[in-house]
Amino acid sequence: MAKEKSVFEMIYEIVKKIPKGKVATYGQVAFLAGNPRWARVVGYALHNNPDPENIPCHRVVNRKGEVSKAFVFGGANMQVELLEKEGVVFNSDGKIDLEKYGI
């Protein structure tokens, strides 16, 4: 009998599917993982990301298209840098156009 996946495992599977050059919001990831009320759980799971090489947590932003000020893998500037390397462009107000770059 297969072991049931944990909430974190479900979140990580969703995040792995976000393509390069695209972003998803915490709420979108929560919804796709099975509960739209898990947005904070998504943030907690990503803060504890066991495999940042394969779980691209830098592709998850808030509902306003802003990066996390508490990005655990080098701060907000590192998250911006990683996204820009993938072709994501930030507006003059520091936000991402979710219409253009959202999944």
Report the radius of gyration as a whole number of Å. 13 Å
- Provide the CATH topology: Arc Repressor Mutant, subunit A
Q: How many E strands? A: 2
Helix and strand string, N-terminal first?
Answer: HEHHEHH
Helix content range of the residues, please? 40-55%
Write structural notes for this entry.
The chain contains 5 helices and 2 strands. The chain has a two-stranded parallel sheet with strand order 1-2. It is mainly alpha-helical. It has helices at 7-16, 26-33, 39-47, 75-85, 98-101; strands at residues 24-25, 60-61. It has a single domain (7-92), classed as Orthogonal Bundle (Arc Repressor Mutant, subunit A). Helix 1 packs across helix 2, helix 1 packs across helix 3 (39-47) and helix 2 packs across helix 3 (39-47).
Helix and strand layout, with pairings?
Blueprint: H1 7-16, E1 24-25, H2 26-33, H3 39-47, E2 60-61, H4 75-85, H5 98-101
Parallel strand pairs: 1-2
Helix pairs in contact: 1-2, 1-3, 2-3
